[in-house]
Design goal:
Rossmann fold; 8 helices; alpha/beta; five-stranded parallel beta sheet; Arc Repressor Mutant, subunit A; DNA-binding; elongated
């Protein structure tokens, strides 16, 4: 997985991001001002930076030039949510701009999109006895290829990318079937049962009562 630099002077938010990154398997470094960013980038191979704008020392708009010149993608995560700030942030090199307050699940999803786009994330994932190749859309269980529909694979990928995080049925429908899906959330239950059977993951894919599902690894 990736090594991600979190730069936010609000310790509660910084720690919240760190907890969720750890849950899905990423490494992280936490900073609370913009002045130390250059030193950390010099000493570490950073795959992505989550950057606040309003920071002590150098602010997020100042420090981004030091990051993008190293070809490291940046997500702004800030309370400055005006359109002008968002446009400015994207124009000076950010890959994404997320306003606070934010949903942790959405942040993790956007991180994974950017990591894949920049080809910094290993596209072969190994969990227990299962090997999932995100590029080839293949799933191998103990050396045997498992046939999956496109929706089953997308659901599996979503669960893996958000492992140890509870996903609501509504969120799963939105991410896998799209906003224009006219069915109901029971289709999620059906596909979950298929994944459990095909992967022998009865104990790994947990049902979260009256909410959704969580992949525990």
């Amino acid at each position: 997985m990736a090594k991600i630099l979190i730069v936010d002077d609000e310790r509660a938010i910084n720690d919240l991001i760190a907890v969720h990154l750890k849950m899905v398997g990423h490494e992280y470094i936490q900073l609370y001002s913009g002045d130390q960013v250059s030193d950390v980038l010099h000493a570490n191979k950073i795959d992505l930076v989550i950057l606040d704008v309003m920071l002590p020392g150098k602010d997020g708009f100042e420090v981004i030039s030091e990051i993008v010149k190293r070809n490291v993608p940046v997500i702004y995560l800030t309370a400055r949510d005006s359109l002008a700030d968002k446009v400015h942030g994207l124009e000076i090199g950010a890959e994404d701009y997320i306003a606070k307050p934010f949903e942790a699940v959405e942040l993790i999803a956007r991180i994974h999109v950017i990591l894949r786009r920049n080809q910094r994330e290993n596209n072969e994932i190994i969990l227990d006895h299962i090997v999932v190749d995100l590029d080839k859309h293949t799933v191998m269980v103990q050396g045997q290829r498992i046939d999956m529909t496109n929706k089953e694979f997308q659901l599996l990928e979503l669960l893996i990318q958000n492992k140890n995080i509870a996903l609501s049925r509504e969120r799963i429908v939105e991410r896998v079937w799209g906003f224009d899906f006219y069915g109901d959330t029971r289709t999620v239950d059906v596909h979950i049962q298929k994944l459990r059977k095909k992967l022998n993951w009865d104990n790994q894919i947990k049902t979260v009562y009256k909410y959704g599902y969580r992949l525990e690894v």
